[in-house]
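queue> pop job 88
queue> type: inverse folding (structure -> sequence)
queue> payload:
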């Protein structure tokens, strides 16, 4: 195997793991975003140090 093929294979594996992690964490990320919006989002910076 050439070095370029090994790098491509590693990139595919890393991308697959990243995609799996994102799919696994998506429901909790949505919930966190909703809580963050209810707390005021970017505008709440001065209220919650």
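queue> result:
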């Amino acid at each position: 195997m050439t070095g370029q093929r090994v790098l491509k294979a590693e990139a595919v594996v890393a991308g697959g793991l990243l995609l799996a992690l994102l799919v696994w964490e998506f429901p909790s990320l949505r919930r966190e975003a909703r809580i963050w919006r209810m707390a005021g989002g970017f505008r709440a910076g001065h209220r919650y140090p």
